[in-house]
Amino acid sequence: MWLCVFGFISLSWLLLCDDSWCYCLWVCPVQLIDTVSRLNWISMGYSGLFITKVASFGKRLLKDHFKSWVFQSLNGLIVLGSLVSFFVVAGCAYLYVFPTFHSVIQNYGISNSSSECNVFEGRWIRDESYPLYNASDCPFAERGFNCLVNGRKDQGYLKWRWKPKNCEIPRFRVHGVLEKLRGKRVVFIGDSMSRTQWESLICLLMTGVEDKRSVYEIKGNSITKRIRYLGVQFSSFNFSVVFYRSVFLVQPGLAPKHGPKRAKSSLHLDKMDEISKEWIDSDILIFNTGHWWTRSKLFEMGCYFQVGGALKLGMSIPTAFRTALNTWASWIETAINTNRTRVFFRSFESSHWSGRRRQFCKVTRNPLSKPKGRGQSPFSDIIMKVVENMAVPATVLHVTPMGAFRSDAHVGTNSDTPSVPDCSHWCLPGVPDMWNEILLSYLLSGN
């Protein structure tokens, strides 16, 4: 199509030249082809290479013949018309034989070729330079996630780094990151998994701060599981890293007055959480949700879904999840200035419970060699589909596959409540640090 347009423009340029047509027949086409040949067509692959070859051929032909007196006659016009026709026919023939050219243009920058890097396809490799911090030296790491302090004897789980299949994740350089974040507001929104990633990022960044007292919780709050707002200020660099607890992202509330007795509360799938207005004035937003979308935390607690003023008692959890994510997407599109704010959504995190009711938790000493079916999640699929259909840019941090291998990295019984095993949350340092390394690689590269 573009080559056809190019031929049409060439012909139009010829017809619109001024009265000094002998001069124009020489200058106009040469300038046009020079301009075309200087464009970065090669970045479009074989399609661009074809265009470059054709332009080069045309330029040589013009230089060889346009200076001759033949172009002062009707024969010159016929030759030039033939050249323009050649561009049109050659271009359209190419599109007919290679119809993928149009898709190359549309998908430019998001190609799935082997030369592109999908950081979420890869494997875990041993790396003795890890961990990147000591949780005991970080006042913002919860005691419950510090597995070594809570009695874990082996330390092998700390020595693993994620290696993408076709590229490398840039090594964490704390001083460069601190400068990149200077003057910015980074906000995590979601459940306790989001809080874990928030704690991880703060601990990573504190390794580059000389005066640890310059890093403090803005309101003087202690790190707890239930508080809805936690904000840490890096005063030397004038930026903050904030966490908002919003486990569903949409608005929980009371059930309608005339609803069934079993409905004690409802989840308004068409309304964002009431604290969402506090998320708007941010430079980086990282969302997650999923672990509270279960029967035990919804229906068995008397919580049902609501749209408008009506309860949706028969609505399935996946359908409700998709409805809530669409509400989130619409809110991003209307409330967030994505020219300023980078938006990320982390996919569902793999857990390693076993048993019919997921009541058994066994933490291994090493990562699994195969994901054993945990590399996919219906929630992650919904997240990726919703983000794909958004009208504004957002990035999915698709961590589901990489977490599927790490049955060795969960808290297990090495928490502040060892009587309650935990195969959902991760030890710190650990897997969430890799999430943040990937997040920072996006921010530092600008991609």
From TrEMBL:
The record lists the membrane-crossing segments as 74-97
Instruction: Give every Trichome birefringence-like C-terminal domain span.
Output: 169-441
Q: Where is the signal peptide?
A: 1-17
In its keyword annotation, does this UniProt entry include Cytoplasm? no
What name does this protein carry?
A: Trichome birefringence-like N-terminal domain-containing protein
This protein's membrane topology, according to the annotation, is:
Single-pass membrane protein
Keyword list (alphabetical) reads:
Membrane, Signal, Signal-anchor, Transmembrane, Transmembrane helix
Annotated GO MF terms:
O-acetyltransferase activity
What organism is the protein native to? Answer: Vitis rotundifolia (Muscadine grape)
